[in-house]
Amino acid sequence: MKNYRFFIEKNFEKNKIIYLSEEELINQLKNVLRLKAKDKIIIFNNQEKEVLAEIVEINKNFIKIKILKILENQNESLSRKTILYCSILKKENFELVVQKATEIGVKSIMPLITKRTVKQNLKEERLKKIIKEASEQSERISLPILNKILTFEKAIKESLNNDINLFFERRGMNISELRKLKAEKVGVFIGPEGGFTDEELALAKANNHKIISLGKLNLRAETSAIIGSYLAENFLSPL
Asked: Considering the domain boundaries, does residue 156 fall inside one?
């Protein structure tokens, strides 16, 4: 039987008893998945740790579980830290970016307002729920941070703390150049549907961002965000 995975903000210790009282979680385990006493689940707490637990008791007010053992999760790279700086897109497109970036392993998501950004706000709680569910599904042991909205100029300044920054733009260098780069903390910049302006591109170049092309075809912003995040996570060499 498959062991379902859940994110729970609790401290984990072997043989420790934990009571889960979140209404949504109780409903999911009891009524949706129809789990019962003695069934096993895997839980993680965003602290680089996950555990195997056994359900002891289920009732309408709480679920009692017992921690059986600490597990070693090697699915997620803890050394690579990819930060996605993505222009805010219309609702379903930005939600897709957040979901897929989480599945890929991105550690932090920075929503941007650029010169050509149309949408100016986000439904933060909705996005955090998507992050939680995508982290559970993809078998991560951490949840990426959803940061506050930044202007493009502030994001460029903040990105100077990264080892390297990749600015994905059609006018950039060939993607094969990524193989030559080494970094642990990587910034990935994705523009809006209208693309970055010449002034924004110049500012990125002035701050030593690597301008990388994803090919000659005009990709949608959400497509570029997903591909760019995957490349940053998997194609750069460690320091």
From this structure: yes
The two most distant CA atoms of the chain are separated, in Å, by 61
Domain extent, residue 129, equals 81-234
pLDDT for 206-236, tens place per residue?
999 999 999 889 999 999 999 999 999 988 8
- Rounded CA separation 58/66 (Å): 12
Q: What pTM, to 2 d.p., does this model score?
A: 0.91
Domain contains 239: no
Domain end: 39, 71, 103, which one?
A: 71
Whole-number percent of the chain with pLDDT over 70: 98
Name the helix (H) or strand (E) containing 32. none
Q: What is the CATH number of the domain that holds 56?
A: 2.40.240.20
Strands (E), the chain: 4-7, 17-20, 40-44, 50-58, 63-71, 81-87, 108-113, 145-146, 150-151, 164-173, 185-190, 210-212
Q: Are 215 and 175 in contact (CB under 8 A)?
A: yes
53 with 102, same domain: the answer is: no
Instruction: Say which residue the tokens 């100016």 belong to.
Output: 120
Domain co-membership, 13 together with 31: yes
Residue showing tokens 């989480």: 102
